[in-house]
From TrEMBL:
GO terms for cellular component: plasma membrane. Keywords: Cell membrane, Membrane, Transmembrane, Transmembrane helix. This is Flippase-like domain-containing protein. The keyword Lyase does not apply. Pfam families: LPG_synthase_TM. It comes from the Bacteria. The chain crosses the membrane at residues 12-29, 35-54, 124-147, 159-180, 192-213, 225-242, 254-272. InterPro entries: L-PG_synthase/AglD. It is found in: Cell membrane.
Length: 314
């Protein structure tokens, strides 16, 4: 029953977002046309290139995590696996891209524990670096942002206190579990390397810049690029953590819109956030196109195993 309710919630959220998009296009068509006329082709192409480069950074992160966990992959193999499974995240459920990756890696002969470590470390690196950059960059650009956000969602000081106490309790219990169960060596093994952190930092900068380059024609005051990067990181994490929103659909756009309202009219901010989502999807289609002409990495691995077995028989 719980799984059924989750599925209904996910599909209901997706259909609600689509209905809102249709309503917005019908009621705000003139504004949409005017806004699009101010966005040059060069801006849209530059934003798409930023997203493509950022997605390559995420591909490198996936490969680094897999290799560190004992799952050897070439960059071409990682590119195929990452980009071919990414489109599955738009299916309500928020897990299908992971399911596809697990199936492919298991067919390659990777151990279940190694696949688990690779996926856990990759997502921990992605979420933690995005969270740190979000807090740091937003605080530098607009120190009162999080207080304003909490006030808008009805989060009072008492709520913040309970949340802080809950966080402290979780940290204490987590530390106790780590030392009691001797998990520290395992967690230490999953830590990111220096190059991986550099790649992720550049990845988030590129993601934020893909949004920032489209803001200039509409802003009433200059928007710091690092503010756009921090806001994009926050929106990405929020979308990642909401289980019923496929690929953070709707959640990411709400955060981006709220953050830009002081600089841009709300309707324009909604449209620009939606355009960024479209460009993000276009970038994913561009990245997945070469994979359609390559042989599956798990098929290559199976062929190698068969050749090895044949040589042993001979």
């Amino acid at each position: 029953m719980i799984d059924r309710l989750k599925t209904i919630a996910k599909w209901g959220w997706t259909l609600a977002i689509l209905a809102i998009v249709v309503w917005f296009c019908v009621t705000r068509w003139e504004m949409i046309v005017k806004t699009m006329s101010l966005l040059s082709i060069e801006m849209l192409v530059l934003a798409t290139i930023c997203i493509i480069l950022a997605k390559l950074g995420l591909t490198m992160t996936m490969r680094t995590a897999a290799v560190g966990a004992g799952v050897p992959l070439t960059f071409k193999e990682a590119y195929w696996i990452y980009n071919m499974t990414q489109l599955a995240k738009y299916v309500p459920g928020s897990i299908w891209q992971l399911v596809g990756r697990v199936v492919i890696l298991k067919r390659r002969g990777a151990a279940v524990s190694a696949i688990r470590d690779a996926i856990l470390s990759e997502h921990a690196w992605v979420v933690s670096t995005a969270s740190i950059m979000a807090v740091a960059l937003i605080f530098i650009a607009k120190p009162m942002f999080f207080l304003e956000l909490s006030n808008n969602v009805g989060f009072s000081e008492a709520h913040w206190l309970w949340a802080l106490l809950g966080l402290v309790a979780v940290v204490i219990l987590g530390v106790a579990a780590v030392f009691r169960n001797r998990l520290l060596p395992w967690l230490w093994k999953l830590k990111p390397s220096g190059p991986a952190l550099v790649v992720l930092a550049l990845t988030w900068v590129l993601m934020g810049m893909s949004y920032w380059v489209t803001l200039a024609p509409f802003s009433s005051a200059p928007i710091p690029w690092y503010y756009a990067v921090g806001v994009y990181c926050l929106a990405y994490v929020a979308g990642f953590l909401v289980p019923f929103a496929p690929a953070g659909l709707g959640v990411r756009e709400v955060i981006l819109t709220f953050a830009l309202v002081p600089f841009i009219p709300s309707e324009v901010a909604i449209l620009l956030a939606s355009i960024n989502r479209v460009l993000y999807f276009v970038a994913e289609l561009i990245l997945v196109a070469p994979c359609l002409f390559w042989e599956r990495p798990d098929a290559q691995a199976a062929q190698v195993v068969q050749e090895a077995e044949a040589s042993e028989v001979i």
